[in-house]
Design brief:
Chain lengths: 334, 314
């Protein structure tokens, strides 16, 4: 009982402790991830019975490739939340970066400039946010609420609400295929696995869990808290930049608005995927699975003829249920 | 020493407000007119009511991000109860306000019983309540309210906008409660040290539930005023109003960590924001430029007050 209850997954058991069985270990390390995965499978089975067209190749591409940018952005968000911080401005950031990227592409700059300028700018903006959080000691919720309105206001006043069209074909990387698979899908899987391994096995990754789990203890063991927090925000900006590339190049136009509450969807993906809202635990595999789950729910509502207007209510209920379950699990352990 | 620093922050802010008012009235001769100022008062009432309740919540170290969604939900329900269910309008509005208040109560229960951090709990209900508003409205809007209903949002009483009276009364009552009653002191005690407050025998949980319920109530009343002011009901009403309210509260000197803050400060912060919005739009800056400025003001205000705090006793 005590072993299966541990949901601080990536701590390697010491050799003195008797090792539990492989399945038990998998459950205790990735319990939440497995639950989300089962939910996806069950949803697929259920909706396909009602409407077989649900698993057509076309719809699968929509679900996986069309929403990969949310999963990629959720990787960085997960890292931020694991350190006990939050970022509510990432949706607006992606909107700003997409507009910059599209403007560069249309202006005739080489496509790699149009792709990677937003990544660098995203890292710079989030680095500034990280400095305000770590050194000026302003709570991350306040900094990012402020950043949210600065970025959102800046985006609309700079673009005037116009869309960017006539994007060069070479720019549209999200529409291309790699090994016969859509690029966003490949990017999502590769980035998730790399980030998950890095978070689990690198000293840097471990220090992020330590900071979120117990900041005082982490500082006492010599982890440079301020520098780590700035670094995690910069990494978050890096993933937001990569997410922007996928987002900006999937359609023929770039709108000056991003999907409403995109930041909330990204935070929700991280939390539902098992990243504890209090910091200190969770994995990016879970956040990616949760992003896929959202996309599946959205598509399932359409295929079962449920009004799309209820989508946000369903997602709201889902996040609330997950948060309550998380707190319940914690309270039982104490 | 606490009282002194409070005084200092509010004085600084009041002086800043005076300077802004002077600059803006030189900028445009339309700004410092009675009709314009009263109209600005009308526009800031909804945010003001929410910000007053938010002051209490932030003073306990909490936050309520769901107020904008509660506003939207209440607005939609007012329309639906009246037009689709067929209730008389006063009853429909009362029923909708009851639901909005209950939504706030649910926030309080989630935060106290399940010990979910307020930020996350209200972020979740932000999505849930807005989703319910969207689901119920199905993107339809409700119009054609009876003429008398517009008195609340568009009419005047004794030459002053009706809702401004409400804001005034709410501000006076709230500052008396927060400043001079046992209950108000409990709010500060929780914000300063929740564990100590609990060990002192204060009813921490009950106070918090009451505060989040009051916040829901304030957002719900703001919703009815909003509907009356703009003559229509839509599910996206009040989106982002939580940011305006939090900015006013924090700008007004309430510490985001809790334990410190006054209603007077919040009202000054509110006036400052509204004056900036109005002055900039009169000077030809678009609404989006104003949003940027508010974001920057929010970050700078906390940055400065943090610097003060660190040089002080903390």
């Amino acid at each position: 009982m005590a072993m299966t209850d541990l949901d601080i997954p990536p701590v390697r058991p010491s050799r003195a402790v008797q090792r539990p069985g492989a399945i038990q270990r998998l459950m205790s390390d990735y319990g939440q991830e497995i639950v989300v995965l089962l939910a996806i499978v069950a949803l697929f089975a259920f909706v396909t019975m009602i409407n077989p067209r649900f698993i057509s190749a076309n719809n699968l591409t929509t679900i996986f490739a069309g929403n990969a940018y949310i999963a990629v952005a959720a990787i960085g968000m997960s890292m931020v939340i694991i350190t006990g911080n939050i970022d509510v401005s990432v949706g607006a950031l992606i909107g700003v970066l997409a507009t910059i990227s599209g403007t560069l592409a249309v202006a005739g700059y080489p496509v790699w400039v149009a792709w990677f300028a937003p990544v660098l700018i995203g890292m710079a903006i989030n680095g500034l946010i990280g400095v305000l959080v770590a050194y000026a000691r302003i709570p991350s919720i306040v900094v990012t609420l402020g950043a949210l309105s600065i970025l959102r206001g800046g985006l609309i006043s700079a673009t005037g609400g116009t869309w960017i069209s006539d994007l060069p074909p070479a720019f549209m990387v999200a529409q291309k295929k790699l090994f016969g698979l859509p690029v966003p899908l490949v990017a999502m899987v590769v980035l998730t696995l790399l980030a998950a391994a890095w978070m689990r096995y690198s000293a840097f990754g471990r220090s992020l869990y330590a900071l979120g789990g117990n900041p005082e203890a982490a500082v006492a063991t010599g982890i440079p808290a301020e520098r780590r927090i700035v670094a995690v925000f910069i990494i978050h900006g890096f993933f937001a930049g990569l997410a922007t590339i996928l987002f900006a190049t999937q359609l023929q136009v770039i709108q000056s608005t991003v999907p409403p509450n995109l930041e909330l969807t990204i935070i929700t993906a991280a939390v539902i995927g098992g990243v504890s809202i209090l910091g200190g635990s969770g994995t990016v595999i879970g956040s990616t699975l949760a992003a896929i789950l959202f996309a599946t729910i959205g598509s399932a509502l359409i295929f079962t003829n449920v009004s799309a207007y209820w989508l946000r209510a369903v997602i709201g209920l889902l996040i609330l249920a997950t948060v309550l379950a998380d707190m319940f699990r914690r309270s039982r352990r104490i | 020493m606490n009282l002194k620093s409070l005084f200092r922050h509010e004085m600084l802010l009041a002086i800043l407000l005076a300077i802004v008012l002077v600059i803006l009235s030189f900028q445009s001769d339309k700004f410092f007119t009675v009709s314009n100022l009263l109209n600005q008062g009308r526009l800031m009432t909804e945010t003001g009511l929410i910000a007053i309740a938010m002051t209490f919540i932030i003073a306990t170290g909490g936050i309520d991000l769901s107020v904008g969604s509660i506003l939207g939900l209440t607005a939609i329900l007012t329309g639906v109860f009246w037009q689709n269910v067929g209730l008389p309008l006063p009853l429909a509005a009362a029923a909708a306000i009851a639901v909005g208040t209950f939504a706030g109560f649910v926030n309080g229960i989630i935060i106290t019983r399940f010990r979910v951090p307020p930020l996350i709990a209200t972020l979740a209900t932000l999505a849930l309540y807005r989703g319910l508003a969207e689901g119920i409205s199905q993107a339809r809007s409700v119009r054609g309210y009876p003429e008398w209903f517009y008195v609340l949002g568009q009419g005047n009483v004794l030459g002053v906008p009706t809702q401004l009276w409400l804001l005034l009364i709410a501000a006076v009552v709230a500052s008396i409660i927060l400043g001079y009653t046992r209950w108000g002191r409990t709010v500060y005690a929780i914000g300063n040290n929740e564990v100590a407050a609990r060990f002192s025998g204060l009813s921490v949980e009950r106070t918090k539930v009451a505060l989040y319920t009051a916040s829901g109530f304030a957002a719900a009343v703001a919703a009815v005023i909003f509907v009356s002011r703009v003559s229509t009901t839509r599910s996206d009403m009040g989106t982002g109003i939580e940011l305006d309210a939090i900015t006013a509260v924090v700008l007004g000197g309430t510490s985001i960590f809790g334990g410190r803050g006054t209603i007077a400060g919040t009202i000054i912060g509110l006036c400052l924001i509204q004056a900036l919005k109005n002055g900039l739009s009169l000077a030809g800056v678009k609404g989006d430029g104003t949003i940027m400025l508010i974001g920057a003001v929010l970050i700078l205000a906390i940055l400065v007050s943090n610097l003060f705090e660190r040089s002080g006793t903390r």
